[in-house]
Write a structure and sequence with these properties.
Elements lengths: L1 H7 L5 H15 L3 E3 L5 E3 L5 E3 L12 H14 L4 H23 L6 H14 L1
Antiparallel strand pairs: 1-2, 2-3
Helix pairs in contact: 3-4, 4-5
Length: 124
């Protein structure tokens, strides 16, 4: 959240922050992911996408790096940037939910999410 606020500026309410995020995405033609249990993706079109997967145990070092790698892998497979971002946040969160079911949210590691990815990707 700190990185996002440095990028787009602080806000007094979550709704205001989301509006600023949407405006920034549209103005600069970029995708922005506001990470969290319900990650929020804003697109250059001004559209908002809210992810339904993920959990509080994923608030640990390296999760953003793993998410970036997942999105990059979808881009490398030929998905559009929007599809790659949507799929990335969904599968990243789903792998986190899968890992949390097996290990619990407390002490969840980025490596747990990475280890859960093949099973999650192959299950759908």
């Amino acid at each position: 959240m700190g990185e996002l606020k440095r990028l787009i500026g602080a806000a007094n309410r979550p709704e205001e922050l989301l509006e600023k995020q949407k405006a920034f995405s549209k103005k600069h033609g970029v995708f922005i992911i506001q990470k969290g249990p319900y990650s929020k993706l804003t697109a250059p079109s001004g559209k908002l996408y809210i992810n339904s997967t993920g959990n509080a145990g994923m608030a640990t070092a390296g999760m953003g790096d793993a998410l970036t790698g997942i999105i990059g892998s979808f881009l490398a497979q030929g998905y559009s940037p929007l599809e790659a971002a949507i799929n990335g946040i969904y599968y990243h969160g789903l792998a986190g939910d899968n890992a949390a079911t097996r290990k619990g949210e407390i002490g969840l590691l980025t490596s747990d999410i990475i280890a859960a990815l093949p099973e999650v990707l192959n299950s759908l």
